[in-house]
Structures are given as structure tokens and as C-alpha cells.
Amino acid sequence: MTRYLRLCKVLWQINIKAMRAYRGHTYMMFFTTLGWSLIAFGAMYFVTYRVDKVFGLSRAEILMITSVYGLIMGIMHTLFTANFERFSQLVNRGELYGILIKPVSAQFLVSVLRIHPLSLMRLCIGIAFILLLISQFSISITLTNVMLAIPLLFIGAYMLYCVWFICNMIVVWFHTVDNMMSFMIQASNIGRYPPEMLFATRNVWAFLLVPLTLFSAVPARVMMGTSTLTEIVILCVCALAFHAGSQFLWKRALRSYVSGGV
Amino acid sequence: MYRQFFINTFVEMFTYRAHFLLWRLRSIIAFLAVFFMWNALFMQREAIAGFTKPEMFTYVILGAFLSMVIFSAKSGVIADEIKDGTLSVYLMRPVGYFRSWFMRDAADKLFNIGASILELSVIIYLLAPPMSLSTDGVYLLLTMLSICVAIVMFFVLQIAVAMAAFWLVETWPIRFVYIVLIQFFAGVMFPLSIFPGILGAILQYTPFAYLVYIPVMIYLGKYDILQSIVQIAIGILWCIVIWIGAHILWKKGLRLYSAVGR
Questions:
Q1: For chain A, what is the domain count?
Q2: pLDDT at residue A159 in the model
Q3: Are B19 and A179 an interchain contact pair (Cβ–Cβ within 8 Å)?
Q4: A226 belongs to a structural domain
Q5: What's the domain range around B99?
Q6: Phi/psi at B133 (nearest 5 deg)?
Q7: For residue B225, is it within any domain?
Q8: Residue range A75-94, pLDDT digits in tens
Q9: What is the residue range of A201's domain?
Q10: pLDDT tens digit string along A195-229?
Q11: Residue B261 falls within a domain, yes or no?
Q12: Which residues of A touch B33 (CB under 8 A)?
């Protein structure tokens, strides 16, 4: 464990140095990240502009889910997005081989080799939006609720990581697919909305997407003190199930990997 | 000769089937998220921002169809061709660079029209949303005209944005801002009239509005015939202005072009 923490520290240092070396790129990333975060929040703000309540959920609650979604996506983009975007290249060119022979967990290296520290800005923007909501809608949030929500936020992020990882394994069998990450980010967008939105459709296809709404909805509700124990348990069970699925599929995928190109 | 560009693109799309399927699935998920959101918002009310439930569902479905067709284009790589020097190959050939790209885009759109009609038909059949279908021949004709304007508008916008590659090493931030503007201000997620006050009024006259919002509003009969013709005329005017701008940049850019990397 200590070895992995040391490795994480080194990876962070390398990536921060890379960020400082390419300053022009970093500045542009700063503005685009800021712009995208504002637009994502603004879209939901304007859509709910003429609405007070949807399914008993207040506008504040819906916007809180959107803000928590921003927080979790901040974690995802900081740690995983760049790595998963590169995964098809690793497989297609046979570069995964170089990672497999290293004396550390290959799944760990595949997932966090490239860190994007600037995406932490999304976390800051998400926190700023939450504070804005608290003041604008006079939401009462207790410290206990916040302390409970933080671990659930990480569980939600881990669940989303496992879903992304499972989907990325498909690339091992379909080498030419290079738009998996774009697909996953789009699919994760469902997390901006509450699960009630899907339940209301009474449609079995919509129910399939429910796990993708839990990762942001449950921590948001815990923070606002409106969640139930069942919701928390369902999030944890989903996270465990996706974790098991990702481990199983990773092992299966490695058996099929042929290291083409090397 | 230009027919061959069309055929080659078509064949290419059949070659990378998994990539294409994932792209389609991504579009379906994006559509379903917006559809379910509006479904939820209309559960307890009759109208939002002047749109009844059937009108809003028609807006969302037609908007999704138009975005799938209009935004599907191969010309997004023009900037890369300028940047890596591939443009030189085309400049030496006796073909119009932009005409060849227009034919590639046309093939891409034709392919996506087929796929979108199939997917949306299945979705409409499964979800059975209430819709407000127009049967007025004049409005249908005006809608078709506005869609043609939208296709040309998107093409000239693509070219104008790509021209930045003559001056900048990295064009992705500009493309990113451009994509964000399109996603938000073309009216794909929601009608632009939902924006409050003067902001909503201004946004309806930007070039982005002519990509999705205006064609759907014409179809829904939100404009009378004269207003529709005026809107189409403004759209054409925007196309001409952007095209002239892009052409000036192209001429100036070619003088600077040094085919770096070739």
C-alpha cells in the first residue's frame, strides 16, 4: 500500500511538472474547464428556471445533484479520463504489454498513469456552486451530513470508475474503437438528473440507466439530509457489484489480449 | 470526381462499424437523457415557456434528429490537416478542397439520416410520446429549406473554426468552445425561448440558433409564414457572412502556410 502511495506521489509530481512545462496548454485548459463547468450548471439552472418542484424534489435539490455531479466528474477527469482515452491506443498498438510487465498492478497503472491536476478546478467549481445554492435557497446543511456525504461521494466516484473500466475492456476485443471514452462521458451525463426522472417514465429501458444516476444523487441527498438508508445501501451494493464486474472482466480481457503491434 | 469522395466516405463508415455503432449509441443516450428530463418536468404541468407537452416532445425529437444529422460531419479534421501539413497533398491535386469536404460531409450525413430515422422510429414506438405533427405543406417546405440552411451553416462554421489552425499550434480550445456554444446555444437541449428576458431574444439571432432551434420552431408553426421566410433569409445572410470571413482567413492563412511536418 505504501509503495502505491509513493508511486501516486511520483505520478502527481511528474504530471504537475508536465502541466507547468506546457503553460500555454494549461492556461487554455483552465479557461475551457471553467467555461464548460459554468455551461453545464447553467443549462440545468435555466431548464429548471420556470419550475419549482418535480416529483416532490425541489429545484434546489435538483441543482444540488448537478453540483455534486460536477464534483464527481472533477475527480474522474483528474484521475481517470486521460488514461481511459489512451486505453484503445495501448491495446491497438500493443503498448499494454509494456505496462503488464511492470512490477505493479497493471490495472492501477492503466487507470492512473496520466493525471490531470487542472481538472481539480472542477472540484472547486462544484464546491462553489454548492455554497451558492446553500446561500440562494437557504438550505440548512449540518456538518454531520457533510461528513457522511464525503465517503459516499468517493464511493459514487469509484462506482463510476468501475463502470468506465468495464466499458473500456470492450476495446480489448474491438481494437478499432477509439470513441469509448466519449461514449462513457455522455452516458455519465445521466448523473446530472435524479433517479425519480427515470422511475417516472415507467419504462424498463429507462430503469437500466438508474445506477448511473445514483453516484451523484445519493451523496447530494445525504448532504441535504433527505436521503434514506435504502438509497445508501443500493449505492454501496451497486459499487460492489461493478467492482466485482470490473475485476472479472479485466482478467478475461487480459486472456484475450494478443499484444498486436509489439 | 467529387462523387468518389462521397463513395469513399460511405465505404469508410461501413469499415469502422463498431466505432459507428458506439457513436450512434452515444447519440441515443444523449437524446434519452433530454427526453426523460422533459418527461419528468411535464408530469405535473401543462405548459412550460409557451410549449405544450406534445410541442415540447416534438421539439426534443426533431431537435435530436437534426442534431444527429447536422452535427455529423467529417470536416472536423480540417484543422488537423492544416496543422500536420496533410493539406499540401490536397493543394497539389486538381480538386476543390472545400467541395471535396462537402461531399464527405454529405456522405456522413446520409449515413446518419438513415441511422437516426431508424433509431428514433424505434424510440417513438417504444416510448409513444405525444407529438404535435405538422401536415401543412408550406410549413414543411419552409422547414426543409431551413434545414438546408442549417446544413450549409454548420459546414461554413466548421471551415471558419478550422482556419484558426493557420495561426495557432493548438486548435482544440477553440474547437472546444465552439462545440460548447453549439451544444448550448443551438437549442438541442431546450428551446432558446426558455432563457429569460433579453438573453433569450438575443440568442435567437446568433448563427447557432439556425442550426436546430429555428428549423424546429418553423416546423412547430411558432412563426407565421412571413416570419419563417425572414428567419430563413437571416440564416442565409449569416451563411454568406461566415463564408466570406472563412474565405478571407483561408487566403491569408495559405500565405502563412508552411506545411510543417511534411
A1: 1
A2: 95
A3: yes
A4: yes
A5: 2-256
A6: -95, 130
A7: yes
A8: 999 999 889 988 888 888 88
A9: 2-255
A10: 888 887 777 777 888 888 999 999 999 998 888 89
A11: no
A12: 189-190, 192-193
- B120-161: per-residue pLDDT in tens? 999 889 888 888 888 888 999 999 999 999 999 999 999 999
Please report the pLDDT score of residue A220 as a whole number. 93
pLDDT in tens, A89-119: 888 888 888 888 888 888 888 888 888 888 8
Residues of chain B with pLDDT under 50: none
Chain A CB within 8 Å of residue B258 CB: no
Closest of A49, A37, A83, A53 to residue A192, by C-alpha: A37
Residue burial B94-126, b: 16+ Cβ < 10 Å; e: rest: eeeebebbbbbbbbbbbbbeebbeebbeebeee
B36 grid coordinates: 426523460
Q: Is residue B140 part of a domain?
A: yes
Choosing among B22, B170, B175, which should be mutated to test the A contact, i.e. which has the most A CBs within 10 A?
Answer: B22
Q: Find all residues with CB under 8 Å of B239, minimum gap 6, and list them.
A: B149, B152, B153, B156
Q: Which residues contact B250 (CB under 8 A, 6 or more apart)?
A: B159, B163
**Residue A48: its chain B contacts at CB < 8 A?**
41
Total count of domains within chain B: 1
Q: Is the pLDDT of residue A61 over 60?
A: yes
A205 → closest Cβ in B25, B41, B126: B126
pLDDT of A260 reads 62
Is residue B238 situated within a structural domain?
yes
Query: What pLDDT is attached to residue A164?
Result: 93
pLDDT range class, residue A72, cuts 50, 70, 90:
very high
Q: How many CB atoms lie within 10 A of CB B38?
A: 21
CA distance A21 to B166: 24
pLDDT for the residue A261: 53
State whether residue B39 sits within 8 Å of chain A by CB: yes
Residue A262 lies in a domain: no
Determine whether the interchain pair A198/B18 forms a contact, defined as Cβ–Cβ distance below 8 Å.
no
